[in-house]
Amino acid sequence: MSAMAPQGQAPPRAEAVPLLRLEAITRHFPGVLALDRVDFDLRPGEVHVLFGENGAGKSTLISIVAGALRPSGGRMFFRGEPLDLASVHHARSLGISAVFQEFSLVPQLTVEENLFLGAEATTRGLLDKRELRRAAGEILDRLGFPLRRNQQVAFLSRAEQQMVEIAKAFRSELSVLILDEPTASLTERETERLFALIEQVKRRGAGVIYVTHRMSEVRRIGDRITVLRDGRYVATVPAKETPDGELVRLMTGRVIEQIFPQIGFRPGRTVLDVQHLSTGSGSVSDVSLMVRAGEIVGLAGLIGSGKSEVARACFGLEALTSGRVVFEGREVSGATPRAMLERGFFYLPPDRRDEGLVMLRSVRENVALAALDTPDLALGPFLRRGAEREKVQELVARMNLQPPRIEREVDHFSGGNQQKVLLARSLTRTVKLFAFDEPTVGVDVGTRVAIYEFIRDLCEAGAAVLLISSELPEILHLSNRVYVMYRGRLRAELTGSEINQETVLGHFFAREAA
Amino acid sequence: MRSMEAKPAAAAGPALRWVQLAFVRLGVLPFLLLVAVVVFTLLSDNFLTSRNLLNVARQSTYLVMVSMGQMFALLTGGFDLSVGTMLAVTSVVGALAMSTAYAAMPDAVALAIALGLLAGFAAGASIGVINGIGVALFNVSPFMMTLGMASIGFGIALYLTGGVPVYGMPQEFGDVFGFGSWLGLPAPVWVTVALIFLLYLLVNWTRLGRYFYAVGGNIKAARLSGINTRLTLFTAYVLCGSMAATSGLLLTARLDTGEANIGASMPLESIAACVIAGVSLRGGVGRVENVVLGALFIGLIQNGMNLARIESYLQTVVIGALLILAVVADQFRLRYIANLQD
What we know:
The complex is a heterodimer. Chain A is an alpha/beta fold.
């Protein structure tokens, strides 16, 4: 597209005065250095991809650019002028708009009300509803989104809510557009629509900061890539020429072979057998799969594809409408989490803050939580606190928790160590099937390696493992077999050499002919 | 930010540093206690005498019991606004049952007392049971559930008595449970001490105790760990009701009448005692021994203000102000903790 621009002056001047320049930006959180002297620049008319693992500092960086966070140190320049963003509102007034993964929509309000939230047109202090209606209609038409102005946001699908969020960014003249994993919940057609929009934005001379994990998107729309790792700037490379392996090396600091362990699979008896399972919420329909002892089965798919809900339904967290769950040869359909734990099924939730840990309580209490009814830790209604302390101390040493202090509140540990606390909990009982749901979300590379080795050891010791993950490399390198889900249904079962990026990704998206 | 706040602490003497650490570890309560004791000792000669302190202990027992019950509701992330009503219903039903039984069979004093105690306890605790059913089974917010029950219970207590105190209980009831004493300690104090011990054991040494913290701290995590969260919530409100009912019976014995108007200040005072003692309003944090201290502190303040002849209307102003002060202090404490990282 840039070839269409008149030759000569535009590119060099863009080099001279970037739209946005960040110098040595630093950001502290209590106990964490989220960004450590990061440099970044954005030229007019380019898509600059931010690349990095979870916890690398991408979200913090875009929050700072969007005015949602203030840097602890460093300087920002906007069109060459020093910039000190006071708020998201301030950023928007300069045309800097962000579309975050966590939607900033009010579910009870309509599409139109959400679009102009905080920037409502008024006449003499009263809402100018006619003008708002006109402007909302105009934005939606321009973007080509199939949304009605007066729909209530709570009733929209995730993809539709994402559209509202994107439309919000377009309500004023854009200079910098920030997109955080925008395609995570979009179909292929909606994704194409978004890419066309991004082209439009570029042609108008605005810059786009694009956060993604997906290699294919990086190639497709990216101009330059800046890689972050553990809060530090690593490199900026051209998007089209840099090979995949090189990007992974920049992102993780290691070559792939060092991250993922070799696992010896010895599949034995079937531990979990799911037959034609459907859930009440409709998130899973007619899914059949099985997991054997001594193997790791990967369950892949987009966010919202129902991969998590399959395990949750088996564990008793979702109501079943039809189908059977057979565990160790016995039907357990509709059992409670407690009954499943007693039978030896352990489900590790994806969001440790939301569902995993009691943040204000100690490591000891958190690790022991799922095993307080076992004879190891309880004598009738009473707790064996000495035995509890010994057991937790031993597990904490095995997980290499840093610092290894079991009376400290979980809230005061880093993300990686919190995850270790959660994993240690799975070792307090006799478990035959481990279901790990996004086990490496928001942890650093070192902890990731430790977690992969932990999973390998469990598998090689003869446990059955169901690995649910949105991180494709994890699925590809750890699984003996892979199931791919799409919109609540099982799309494919892959084994051996079929487990490769192209094949798995091919099943991720809709094949929409029309 | 962090370095800026850490500097004055480092520059100040070790004494201030020690005070800061104590504040972070123990919360605001020890400081308030210290200030209260010093102020009231200066204001009144009679304050710091063993006779008066024993008096404080006896007067505070009723609040100590209710506050310990309230703690369970708070631990699970809720609260109970109907504790005052429970006292009223317990008192009225217990007194009615006891006086009726006593009138019917004037010779069987012990039986009449036992029947009255049983009826009163059942009536008060049943409000806790209904609260528990509403909160645990029907997911009614604790605020609405207990507020509603407070209105229902108070209405019933007034309806049963017509607003008039219930007389006619056997003399022995008051003599034993209200004014009796053993080894120099009043009977209500003995009951309270026994309950403190039992609840301490329950909270710290049993599975159920641990479940209260887990359910209040993160109900989803508790559920995923195989804990019966509904049963835990239900039990918390039943325990709260039982404690309030016990308190109501002992207070009835002390007053020698069944009254619908006792306990009106209990919801505020019991929540205040817990919050001053560091029980989190968000659930999951709190200790029995601190709550006992918190309730004693409120008793101490009221006693001291009485001795210093501060008007009772002004006393409620002080209690409210202290409650807010405690919450503000707790916010500061959380900020300190974040800064100290330990």
